[in-house]
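User: Predict the complex.
Assistant: Input components as received:
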Amino acid sequence: DAGVTQSPTHLIKTRGQHVTLRCSPISGHKSVSWYQQVLGQGPQFIFQYYEKEERGRGNFPDRFSARQFPNYSSELNVNALLLGDSALYLCASSLFYSQETQYFGPGTRLLVL
Amino acid sequence: AQRVTQPEKLLSVFKGAPVELKCNYSYSGSPELFWYVQYSRQRLQLLLRHISRESIKGFTADLNKGETSFHLKKPFAQEEDSAMYYCALGTGGFKTIFGAGTRLFVKA
């Protein structure tokens, strides 16, 4: 198993555009969480999905949305991009929604110009 | 408020010296605490969690509910311990709050 995979690895967008980031969890893992990591800070929780339902949401505006598919992969969507959305977006998978060990992907680095 | 505080951004020690990375949390419920580590050019990965009470790579951490702390300790630091360390708080199963991280630099 390659572990958690994310695509793309890097992305450049301009203000106002929309972006979709993708994540494939470890085989057998049913929970996916998304984090935003700004330079110099720790990961900030955005969403957790388990069995295709949103189970937790952090303090992010409605421009951020996500979904989980039947194969447990997930997408994070961000609309109306702002300069402040520039960050590393991390995906993590775990077996269940309970507080278990999370396995992180390499991240997608988003730059908004 | 739910919060994790790592007061040191950078900690520099000599090889063989003891190491303590501090972590304090704020949470009214029953906390689940973790330490994650990121080595150079690698992914963020779990180092240890309080519920398992394991010692990983010589590191230990004890949950002190009275002081709301979960400090990470190692008696003798090694050069390969140089990395970014994040303390994380699990809140009821759906949300994990990370601290800002401490960069540990172990000098030869």
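The longest strand of chain B covers residues 83-90.
Let me know if you want any component modeled separately.
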